[in-house]
Amino acid sequence: MNSAGSGYADQDRQLAFNFSVAARAAGVERIIYLGGLGETGPTLSKHLSSRREVEVALGTSGVPVTVLRAAMIIGSGSASFEIVRYLVERLPVMITPKWVTTPCQPIAVRNVIGYLTGVLRVPATSGHIYDIGGPEAQSYLEIMRIMAQELGLPPRWVIPIPFFTPRLSSYWIHLVTPLSKDIAKPLAEGLKNPVVCRENRIVALIPQPLLTVRAAIQAALVKIAQKSVETNWAMAGPIPGDPDWAGGTVFRDSRRLTIDAPAPATFRAVCRVGGGHGWYAADWLWKIRGAMDRMVGGPGLRRGRRDPESVGYGEALDFWRVVGYESNRRLALRAEMKLPGEALLEFRIEPLSERQSVLIQTALFQPRGLFGLLYWYAVVPLHGIVFSGMMRGINREALQIATLPPTPPGNDSDRLPSPRTPPRNFSQ
User: What CA–CA distance (Å, rounded) separates 56 from 64?
Assistant: First the structure.
């Protein structure tokens, strides 16, 4: 539920209350909630305290709640797992807060899923709270050591600094990893609290083989290597609706290109933008823009993308978010970089024949104040380099895709289901 930002605790509590009331009205028999470990008390971090408040709010309507409290979840796409992985990968020498020595009892994501589904089969778990964890407790320092070994890296030098505050930690995590400081700060605050199971009743109720820290890391890295991560931390959070264009200035840069490839091939080429593949042209300009965005607290290019081929609604592509998806027809991306306004980049594909299609690329920008106007006029000269080059790159890629044998069912990007949400105001 955590949507990050300074008001996340109040928002999460209200969302939990609303969910509880709706569940009661719908006749839901039980709510199952995955929360966080940590000793209750004045020293409990704001993030973990918020998880406790959500537990209470979920039970306000009288629907029985089963709570599973976990520490760090080790799995591909997990924010806490990604923090450790990126820190270890990128920093041979680390200056860290004291929390690296805090005890933690991580649990593999497959074991979390085992417990979440298992409680449904055990009616006696209704209305109870359980601590869940793996078979061993480790310090974060030890988890980093194991991570380095599994990544095939030399030992990392870690230097704990006592005055390294959670706020400083969040900025450091923001600069070194793809996570934003808004997500990193509550996670960093929570790292100061020991998160170890105080009881293990659930082990007898729902027996399953529990993965060690090393085995869990190995499983997560294999999934990343296979590019089979279904969701990740970057897909979390709210997706804003269309901005209100009424009475406002909207700048438009629209380009059109006929491609000698069928619509599905052109669409697949479009869906490859971002991440390691790049943006087809002037990648150095994109990298500069991404670095500037990171410096002012934006996501930058480090966020990458979940999969090099497939995309889905709500997914992050570097500093863009997928807000529109129609198979073989349309992909719309909303800018999440720091901007003095609202921006959308839309690709539409119109089939001409079995071997030809038209690609229409449209960039829309609604400026916010004088600085927004100045920003638009400053970047317009670069559009000829960036957007025209992107169109040519998509054309080359589509032609190459068109020569490949058909993709086996279930593997092509345009089969990935996602909601259709055409932004009327943007496209009109």
Answer: 11
- Asked if residues 95 and 33 have their Cβ atoms less than 8 Å apart, the reply is no
Domain shared by 178 and 260, yes or no = no
CA distance 74 to 218: 10
CA 12, chain centre distance (Å): 18
Let me know: does 184 contact 190? Beta carbons within 8 Å.
no
Q: Distances in Å between the alpha carbon of 173 and those of 138, 152, 288, 395?
A: 21, 22, 20, 38
Q: Which of 192, 226, 260 is the last residue of a domain?
A: 226
In a domain, residue 233? The reply is no
At a CB cut-off of 8 Å and minimum separation 6, what does 5 contact?
11, 182
The SS3 of residue 421 is: coil
Let me know: does 213 contact 74? Beta carbons within 8 Å: yes
Buried b / exposed e along 175-198 (16+ C-beta atoms within 10 A): ebbbbbbbbbbbbbbbbbbebbbe
Same-domain status, 213 and 264: no
Q: In what order do the strands lie in the sheet with 316-317?
A: 251-259, 357-367, 341-351, 330-335, 320-326, 316-317
Classify burial at 104, counting beta carbons within 10 Å of its beta carbon; exposed 0-12, middle 13-18, buried 19 or more: buried
Mean pLDDT of 105-130: 94
Same domain, 247 and 379: yes
Residue at 116: amino acid letter: L
**Of residues 304, 356, 363, 322, the one with CA closest to residue 339:** 363
Number of domains in the chain: 2
- What's the CA gap between 285 and 387, in Å, rounded? 12
Please, which pLDDT band fits residue 244 given cuts at 50, 70 and 90?
very low
In the chain, DSSP finds a helix count (H) and a strand count (E) of 13, 15
HSE of 90 in the Cβ direction (CA atoms, 13 Å)? 15
Pairing of strands 129-132, 65-70: parallel
Confidence of residue 411 (pLDDT cuts 50, 70, 90): very low
Cα–Cα distance between 54 and 400 in angstroms, integer? Answer: 51
- Confidence bin at 65 (pLDDT 50/70/90): very high
Mark whether 194 and 259 lie in a shared domain. no
